[in-house]
């Protein structure tokens, strides 16, 4: 009789625990749509790699901590084909059809903007990543957050402060006709008002430009202390080539996007030394103990180094989401509250949001020194002091 | 205005002319001869760029040698395209009647396939490698050696092609086909063989361009389309199927881009380029060197 009772208790216990065990192993579905084809794919795919690295690391560590229970991650990825008009449709499918538990963000500012209304409608929180525009501040706080501190309205005053500290008096612009570079130009110019720094040349060029010889010639004639090449990688290459050919010797030369990309370093090697660029992350920052391990893990998995802006931002968005889910679970309202109020420990140091904005990470600038991207501004965050751009190598 | 006399501008304009001429050459052959809208032209260039990239990174072979392999591979791809797709279309009267529009869709499909195959094989990350990037003095200007190589090879390839079309039997046969397709067949020209040759040549020229462009700029699986657009502008400007016209078209675009921007502002670059393009087509719809249709 005792044996029968024991067996019965065990059977009932097993029957009760079985759903729990099954529940514990049930994957957390995380969805993302990102440009895997089309013109934005080259820039977007490294950010997808950051997501994949995070998923792999999390699964290897036993799964995503969902309010105390570890569950494996099932990452669902769609290709938005670099078409931002498809973003809302794909994310709606992820929410309603794939019934994902969590969302990761797409690539680029317009894709983020395209989702604001949808997230609001489904009350689905999503941590953004590669979105940087002062227009973001107009987004109603609610279900989306932006971890970047590379914001044009913050970059303008910071750059001017930096030049003042270095004693520079003249600046020249070579600006791509695209919203992000043009926003930066306008904020820098606005920040220059009331200072003794003068704009001595200001050139704009179209995205399909094939040669910047005349732009660099005009800038060289103006003999500026500072040159801002506010360009994306394709035009940054043209600037670098023209500047090198014409031996442009301004001691401060900023190239907006490109210098921290691996292909760029291969192309220009030692000529990149001294070039300043945007970014608020570096594996060399010892204050952020997670930075270097992330850098090494990325290289180990993909056999290439990450860029210093988009890829860290994508990984940070995963870290923020994971830490919020660990506390709040998958309940959307609790998750939203957690993301909006908590402080998160990331590869880029602590992150805290005020509204949609990351208010913990200062706006920084990097400089390539001996092939490594060092943070040179602000001084409190610097991993190395700024160095004047030396002569171009032949 | 003194800067207009700068040798730096002249060299930059010449190099850019060579780049435009080179990327337009292959497209001119295929569109000029068969009226096929090869919108995969840029992707074929990227494919060749990757061949040279791979040869350089993995085998240590420079693009000046690997461009031959790149041309061979793209020529084979051209032959496959013709033999498996376009030959069948040309045989079918109904399909052949809509050849130009059909070709647009087919080549669009090919461009997507090439993009994705390259993306799978090499990832979508841009690729580059330093090759002959020493800055050398030329005519009082300073220019990277690889850009001079593009200038020399581009000019050489264009001249060779022009000579081929002017003096070689096969070249003359291709020209005959461009001018009078039906009459050419009547005098014994094997249109099928000539078509195959044109595909091989056109793709090989795209391969040559891609192989060389990879020395001076980054390549990526999705980076071909802007080259296709540039190539179309050049060949329309010069006169469809007219290689010499393509050369003039390339030079005109390049000089407008360099000197026009210097005189006005870089902000007006697109306005100037497309303005000149429209102006030329208004006064010479047949292109700079093309002949008006009778």
Characteristics of this structure?
heterodimer; A: 394 residues; alpha/beta; Rossmann fold; 2 domains; 7-stranded mixed sheet; 3-stranded parallel sheet; B: 294 residues; mainly alpha; two-stranded antiparallel sheet; 75% helix; globular
Q: Your description of this structure?
A:
The complex is a heterodimer of chains A (394) and B (294). Chain A folds into 2 domains: 22-149 and 287-358, Rossmann fold (3-Layer(aba) Sandwich), CATH 3.40.50; 152-278 and 364-381, Response regulator (Rossmann fold, 3-Layer(aba) Sandwich), CATH 3.40.50.2300. Chain A contains 13 helices and 17 strands. Chain A has helices at 2-25, 41-60, 87-96, 109-113, 116-122, 152-166, 179-192, 213-222, 233-245, 262-268, 291-302, 310-328, 332-341; strands spanning 28-34, 64-66, 69-71, 73-79, 102-103, 126-127, 144-145, 170-176, 198-205, 226-230, 252-255, 275-278, 343-346, 349-354, 357-358, 365-369, 372-377. Chain B is mostly helical and 294 residues long. Chain B has one domain. Chain B is built from 12 helices and 2 strands; from the N terminus they run αααααββααααααα. Chain B has helices at 7-34, 41-59, 63-91, 93-97, 99-122, 145-167, 169-179, 181-186, 191-216, 225-238, 243-263, 269-283; strands spanning 135-138, 141-144. Chain B has a two-stranded antiparallel sheet with strand order 1-2. The longest helix of chain B has 29 residues, at 63-91. Chain B is globular and about 60 Å long. Classes of the chains: A alpha/beta (394), B mainly alpha (294). At the A-B interface, α2, β9, α8, α9 and α10 of A face α1, α5, β2, α10 and α11 of B.
Lay out the secondary structure.
The complex is a heterodimer of chains A (394) and B (294).
Chain A: H1 2-25, E1 28-34, H2 41-60, E2 64-66, E3 69-71, E4 73-79, H3 87-96, E5 102-103, H4 109-113, H5 116-122, E6 126-127, E7 144-145, H6 152-166, E8 170-176, H7 179-192, E9 198-205, H8 213-222, E10 226-230, H9 233-245, E11 252-255, H10 262-268, E12 275-278, H11 291-302, H12 310-328, H13 332-341, E13 343-346, E14 349-354, E15 357-358, E16 365-369, E17 372-377
Parallel strand pairs in A: 1-4, 1-5, 6-7, 8-9, 8-10, 10-11, 11-12
Antiparallel strand pairs in A: 2-3, 12-16, 13-14, 14-15, 16-17
Chain B: H1 7-34, H2 41-59, H3 63-91, H4 93-97, H5 99-122, E1 135-138, E2 141-144, H6 145-167, H7 169-179, H8 181-186, H9 191-216, H10 225-238, H11 243-263, H12 269-283
Antiparallel strand pairs in B: 1-2
């Amino acid at each position: 009789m005792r044996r029968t009772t024991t067996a019965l208790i065990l059977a009932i216990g097993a029957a009760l625990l079985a759903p729990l065990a099954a529940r514990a192993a049930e994957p957390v579905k995380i969805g993302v749509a990102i440009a895997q084809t089309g013109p934005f794919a080259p820039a977007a795919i490294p950010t997808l790699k950051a997501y994949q690295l995070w998923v792999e690391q999390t699964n290897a560590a036993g799964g995503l901590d969902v309010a105390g229970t570890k569950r494996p991650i099932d990452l669902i990825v769609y290709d938005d084909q670099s078409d931002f008009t498809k973003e809302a449709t794909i994310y709606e499918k992820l929410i309603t059809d794939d019934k994902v538990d969590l969302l990761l963000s797409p690539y680029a500012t317009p894709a983020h903007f395209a989702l604001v209304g949808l997230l609001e409608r489904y009350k689905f929180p999503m941590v953004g990543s590669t979105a940087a525009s002062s227009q973001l501040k107009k987004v109603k706080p609610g279900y989306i957050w932006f971890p970047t501190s590379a914001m044009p309205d913050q970059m303008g005053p910071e750059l001017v402060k930096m030049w003042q500290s270095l004693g520079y008096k003249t600046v020249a612009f070579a600006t791509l006709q695209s919203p992000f570079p043009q926003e930066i130009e306008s904020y820098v110019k606005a920040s220059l008002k009331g200072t003794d720094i003068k704009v001595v040349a200001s050139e704009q060029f179209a995205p399909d430009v094939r040669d910047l010889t005349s732009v660099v010639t005009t800038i060289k004639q103006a003999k500026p202390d500072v040159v801002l090449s506010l360009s994306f990688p394709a035009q940054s290459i043209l600037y670098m080539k023209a500047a090198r050919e014409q031996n442009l010797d301004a001691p401060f030369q900023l190239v907006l996007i490109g210098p921290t990309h691996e292909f760029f370093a291969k192309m220009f090697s030692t000529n990149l030394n001294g070039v300043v660029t945007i970014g608020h992350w570096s594996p060399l920052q010892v204050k952020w103990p997670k930075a270097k391990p992330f850098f090494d893990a990325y290289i180990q998995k993909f056999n290439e180094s990450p860029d210093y802006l988009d890829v860290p931002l994508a990984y940070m968005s995963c870290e923020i989401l994971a830490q919020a889910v660990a506390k709040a679970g998958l309940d959307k309202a609790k998750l939203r509250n957690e993301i909006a109020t908590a402080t998160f420990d990331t590869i880029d140091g602590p992150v805290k949001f005020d509204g949609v904005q990351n208010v913990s990470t200062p706006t920084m600038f990097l400089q390539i020194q001996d092939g490594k991207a060092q943070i040179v501004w602000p001084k409190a965050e610097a991993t190395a002091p700024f160095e004047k751009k030396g002569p171009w190598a032949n | 205005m003194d800067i207009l006399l700068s040798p730096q501008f002249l060299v930059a304009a010449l190099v850019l002319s060579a780049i435009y001429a080179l990327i337009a050459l292959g497209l001119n052959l295929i569109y000029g001869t068969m009226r096929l809208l090869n919108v995969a032209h840029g992707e074929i260039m990227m494919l060749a760029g990757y061949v040279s990239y791979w040869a350089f990174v993995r085998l240590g072979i420079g693009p000046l040698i690997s461009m031959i392999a790149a041309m061979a591979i793209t020529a084979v791809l051209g032959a496959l395209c013709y033999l498996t797709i376009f030959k069948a279309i040309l045989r079918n009267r109904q399909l052949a009647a809509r050849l130009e529009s059909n070709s647009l869709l087919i080549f669009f499909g090919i461009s997507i396939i090439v993009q994705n195959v390259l993306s799978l094989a090499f990832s979508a990350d841009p690729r580059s490698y330093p090759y002959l990037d020493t800055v050398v003095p030329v005519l009082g200007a300073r220019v990277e050696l690889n850009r001079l190589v593009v200038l020399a090879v581009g000019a050489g390839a264009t001249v060779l092609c022009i000579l081929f079309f002017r003096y070689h039997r096969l070249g003359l046969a291709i020209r005959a086909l461009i001018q009078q397709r039906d009459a050419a067949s009547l005098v014994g020209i094997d249109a099928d063989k000539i078509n195959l040759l044109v595909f091989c040549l056109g793709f090989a020229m795209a391969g040559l361009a891609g192989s060389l462009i990879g020395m001076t700029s980054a390549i990526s699986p999705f980076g071909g389309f802007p080259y296709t657009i540039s190539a179309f502008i050049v060949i329309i400007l010069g006169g469809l199927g007219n290689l010499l016209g393509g050369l003039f078209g390339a030079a005109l675009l390049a000089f407008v881009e360099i000197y026009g921007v210097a005189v006005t502002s870089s902000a007006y670059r697109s306005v100037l380029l497309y303005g000149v393009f429209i102006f030329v087509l208004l006064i010479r719809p047949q292109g700079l060197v093309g002949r008006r249709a009778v």
